[in-house]
Structure formats: structure tokens, C-alpha cells
Known about the structure:
The protein is an all-alpha fold. The protein has one domain (2-55). The protein has helices at residues 2-27, 29-55. Helix 1 runs antiparallel to helix 2 (29-55). The longest helix has 27 residues, at 29-55.
Amino acid sequence: MRQNKKQRRTYRSVMPIYICVLYCMLTFLPLTMTVLTHHAKVYIVLLVAIVFFHIY
């Protein structure tokens, strides 16, 4: 129960960062698409690593 509460608090504090990143990606959409097509695998690995780090 205590662990669940801690996870929720971490998620809430991390949420604005994800919103900011998403907003930046939408703002620079052409650039984002270019970068993603060239470095898709790198970004997928990074994203998984970040999500994994925040969960554990």
C-alpha cells in the first residue's frame, strides 16, 4: 500500500515533464519526424529505459 502511494506521487511529479516533451515534439513536428526516422531504434530504447527507470 505504501509502495503504491509512492509510485502515484512519482508519476504525478514526472507528468509535467512528459507533457513538456510532448509539447516540444508537437511544436517541432517536422524536425521530430526527421530525427525519429533516422534514429527510431535509439529513441525507442531511450523511451523504454526512461519508463523502466521511473517505474522501478
